[in-house]
Amino acid sequence: MISQFTFQGAKKILFGQGSIRKLSDEIKALSGTKVLLVLDQGLEQVGVAQRVVDPLEANSVSYVLYDKVTSEPEPVLADEGAALAIKERCDLIVGVGGGSSLDVAKAAAMLAKNGGKAVDYIGLETVPMPGLPTIMIPTTAGTGSEVTFTAVFTMREKKVKGGINSRFMYPDLALLDPELTVSLPPYPTATTGMDALTHAIEAFTSLQSNPISDLVAREAISLIGANLRRAVDRGDDLQARRDMLLGSLMGGLALASAGVGACHALAYPLGAFFDIPHGLANAVLLPYIMAYNLEDAEEKYAQVALLIGAGATGHSRGVSAKAGVEVVRGLSRDIGIPQRLKDLNIPESAIADMAEMAMTVARPIANNPRKMTKEAAIKIYQSAF
Questions:
Q1: Which CATH class is domain 13-181?
Q2: Burial track 179-202 (b if 16+ CB lie within 10 A, e otherwise)
Q3: Mean pLDDT computed over every residue of the chain
Q4: pTM over 0.70
């Protein structure tokens, strides 16, 4: 745990059942007069888009829709969103959906003021000034993007993924309404929930962890461990949905402060090479990364076991730590996550190239509690295959 740290996130968090009805008030509080709504494809079909639009129309808030966001988005989507915001003279951007939608919205807001293209800003602190004000509304309990300073994109032509990471990209408001997550089907509930658990566990064991990030990471692990199975099995269980959304939020706060580890680095090539959704890639790899990290993360993995309910007093730390790895593996299996890379139709011949790319994801590699090498990455992929 580091002795000096900073802790940041969204400037304001509004959480609770029915909070979407306060959207127009929050827009006016940010002096918004015309809004660009950035949506995941498909939200209109399940009625979530209308839940967001209703309070705007009821209060005569002008808005423009940008609903072209796809899974694992290309940076051009942020470019298009920014161009539309400028053309329509929008003065605030609202992102609605999963991490892809929120990332596109954050980047579009930044581009609307800074100019250029999204690919120009891939990296750390490359953004010179704030963008348009933003409100992020997650409809999955997964990415935590509503409180982070990152927007991740897939450059398919180059087969790489990269993120824009800037203090100017923290949202002005994270609005989290559990009611908006109820329509999420079981499988994406499972994959996004495991994504949130990955954020919490990796932030908890990060070499950049700190007392505050540990506090929220522990609570995230506890909430997700207790509620993910229920949310997958009974999607209309609003209490489970609420606690999962809260766990995801806390996981996002933890990762924004402490960063993530090698699971994210090894997951990136699965998305860049094979279009595997980020949450699913993390979900499949997490138990294997934990097993690799075991010898250098015993104390915290033992805490993971206790937080999820698999630990017991009287056991040695090593035994409890192994129980932490196995309880995560069992949770993943119980909710229908594929257990092997071959189940994702990834060829074994791609392992060396994936390991090569994983090692370029520098910050998560550096944060990992056990030193990661290309050779170790290859062995982890082989073990997971």
A1: alpha beta
A2: bbbbebeeebbbbbbbbbbbbbbb
A3: 93
A4: yes
